[in-house]
Give the backbone structure.
Amino acid sequence: MSDTKGFLATDGSGVSPHGRNFDASLNQVVHPRGDRQFVIRMGKGKQPAKARLVVEASQGEELYLLSGITIPPMRILIVKLSAIGDCLLASPVAQALRQTYPDAHIGWVVHPHCAPVVRGNPNLNQIHILPRKKLFWSLPAVTRELRSANYDIAIDLQGLFKSGLVTRLSGAKRRIGPIEAREGATRFYTERVLRGLSAKEHVVPGYLRLAAAAGATWDVEPEMHMPFGNSERSMVGDLLASYGVVEGDKLIVLNPSAGKAIKQWGPKKFAATGDALASRLGAKILITGAPADRELADSLLAEAKSPMIDLTGKTNLNQLAALFSRVDLFIGGDTGPMHIAQAAGTRVLALFGPTDPTILGPRHPRHRIHTLALSCAPCRHRECPIGHLCLENMAAGEVVELAAQMLAEPT
């Protein structure tokens, strides 16, 4: 057997190469014998088999297990069910865990409409789909699937009753979740972690704090990942070519939908922005959105004075990421496509109204956030009682100037 690297804590307990305590991972009880060896009791019976492990370090130092047992790879479950943007913002957790535990089996539980955001992520081994409709009818089958995977740790990044319940049903002995979880979800956790250090902290460090509780470490903060590959690039290349787009064209995406009406800037202002950028920069303007955004896109196109390329409903999420990787700038509100654009490496001009950009906005300096400093924002209203001033007062000219500045900067 090849040497297996491990650690001996100052209290004499053993920790595996994967950061797991032996007794937590394999139902083993570790007994220190002096400074330099363990006796590990294996199994659950009254007379368990014994294996002696000789170590080459004293307490608190690195050690090598020279003989005895083989420690299987860690099995970790991430629970983040939705939404599209939130799953993308949580994707650095998978990278952090993979970097720390390269041999681990890492799974993710997700709702069907968000599965494209995680399926194909190279840091994941398995995707578990939890239906949104008839949820409780589907739980027995999902529970069997999760338990057959024998997860050691489940990490709830959602922090709601439904996601907390999934961690409990997974069968994982260690269940990590945020102490701020709502709907009574904390009852399902064995470990509760303070996710946010302040009310204004961005969500990504909070997600990574939960990964750190599972032992993940990193030197540089892991990045978001949106899966797409050659097939999506090829499809997008053909699609753009069909509209006369050639290599070297300056491409700007306008994404008028933001999911909820209260977060939308309005098709008339998007149209004015597109017209100005097409005239001023000679850019080709692309309109993107889901099939459900058809009416909004039509309103934008009806207001536009210059020709624009309407790609609404013509891509799936992974193809949309490939499309964004081809363009020079994305302009849109706080919505899933804005996060997809970031993950695809596209510069983003994010228009924020009622939601808080310090928590959800793009963080890299190559991106820009445009928001008005109103005393009423951010807010949690579903409908604005005072006329939607945070976006109604945002002028198209301001957005055009910011976009022009961004495009003048080196990539």
Q: What stands out?
A: The two ends are 50 Å apart (CA to CA). The longest helix spans residues 84-100.
